[in-house]
Amino acid sequence: MEYGTIRIKLDDLLKESGLSKNMLSHRAEMQRTQINNYCRNQITRLDIDVLGRLCTVLNCEIGDLLEFVPPTEKEK
């Protein structure tokens, strides 16, 4: 049974904010590879410290950063 997934919208937020990945990595004190993984939705376990850093630097709410994508009828 499929339960849906969480989509990380970091790439969209970066485009809206005008920040580069390099600037975000410096301000959030994160490695660039980690930023890239979040932008590509290649994260299997979310880190609440990282989410807090991203929300603080991007001045956004957690709901702006994460989105629940329900399963399709085929996947249920």
UniProtKB/TrEMBL annotation:
This is Helix-turn-helix transcriptional regulator. GO terms for molecular function: DNA binding. Residues 10-65 form the HTH cro/C1-type domain. Pfam families: HTH_26. It comes from Candidatus Eisenbergiella intestinigallinarum. SUPFAM superfamilies: lambda repressor-like DNA-binding domains.
